[in-house]
Please model this.
Amino acid sequence: MYGAETWTLRAADQKYLESFEMWCWKGKEKISWTDHVRNEEVLLRVNEQRNILHEISKRKANWIGHILRRNCLLKQVIEGEIKGEMDEEEDVGSYWMTLRTGEDTVI
Model:
C-alpha cells in the first residue's frame, strides 16, 4: 500500500483491494483456494474486519492535512490555483473531489 494516500480508487480497484485482503487472510490461515470457505467465516477465524479501504481513507486524510498545512506548490495545485493545459480525456480534479466528498470511489 505504498503511496496509497495519493491513489484515486475506482470501484474496480476497491474490489481488487478487498479481494487481495481476503487472499492474505486466507493465506495466513492456510486455507486453500479450492476450499469453499466464505469470507465472513475467514474474518471470524482471524478475529478481524475488512479494513484495507478504511486504512487508505485514513491515510488520504492525514496526507491532505499535511499538505494543506504547508505553503507549497503541491497545495496550490491541489486547490486548483495553478492553471495548466489538460487533455479532454483527463479526469479533472477527481482526487480533490474524492477528498471533499469523503467518497473513495471514482466511477
